[in-house]
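Task: sequence design from structure.
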C-alpha cells in the first residue's frame, strides 16, 4: 500500500483498499457508466467530508488496515491538498487484474481518472479506484490527488 505521512493514500497505480459504492451490472464489471457513476458518488462524499459513511461500507480487509479515524484522516489530508473544485471531467476508465499483490486480494480493479480545474485556475488530477466484489458490486478502494498526470511509463518506474 502506498501511504503518505501515515495517511490514507491508496492507488497511485496499484495498491488498493475498499469501501462500497453502489453498482451492479448485467455482466460483472462490464459497464464504464457504472464506474463513472460510482466515482461521481465517491467524489461527492469525499468533497462533503462524508468519510464515515465510506468507511462503514468498507470491505473487511480494509478495516484490517485502517481504523475509521485513520481512514477519515487520510482522506481529509488528501482532499485538503486539492482545494476548491470548479470543474471535473473524467479522462479515463482503466480496468486492471491483480494477482498475488501484497495486501491486495486477487481480482478485477478499476481506476477512474479525472482532470480537475480548481477555483484558482490550477489543474490537478484525481484518481478514484474500485474493486469488483464477488457479489458483482464495485467497491471504492482509494482516492489519489496529484499535481501531475501519470503515464503508464511513469507508473512502472
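Answer:
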Amino acid at each position: 500500500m502506498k501511504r503518505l505521512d501515515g495517511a490514507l493514500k491508496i492507488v497511485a497505480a496499484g495498491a488498493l483498499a475498499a469501501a462500497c459504492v453502489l453498482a451492479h451490472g448485467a455482466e460483472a464489471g462490464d459497464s464504464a457508466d457504472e464506474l463513472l457513476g460510482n466515482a461521481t458518488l465517491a467524489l461527492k462524499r469525499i468533497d462533503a467530508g462524508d468519510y464515515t459513511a465510506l468507511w462503514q461500507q468498507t470491505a473487511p480487509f480494509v478495516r484490517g488496515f485502517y481504523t475509521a479515524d485513520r481512514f477519515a484522516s487520510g482522506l481529509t489530508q488528501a482532499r485538503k491538498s486539492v482545494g476548491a473544485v470548479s470543474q471535473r471531467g473524467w479522462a479515463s476508465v482503466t480496468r486492471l487484474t491483480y494477482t498475488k499483490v501484497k495486501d491486495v486480494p486477487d481480482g478485477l480493479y478499476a481506476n477512474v481518472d479525472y482532470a480537475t480545474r480548481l477555483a484558482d485556475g490550477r489543474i490537478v488530477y484525481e484518481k478514484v479506484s474500485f474493486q469488483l466484489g464477488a457479489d458483482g458490486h464495485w467497491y471504492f478502494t482509494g482516492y489519489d490527488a496529484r499535481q501531475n498526470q501519470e503515464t503508464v511509463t511513469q507508473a512502472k518506474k
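The mean pLDDT is 77.
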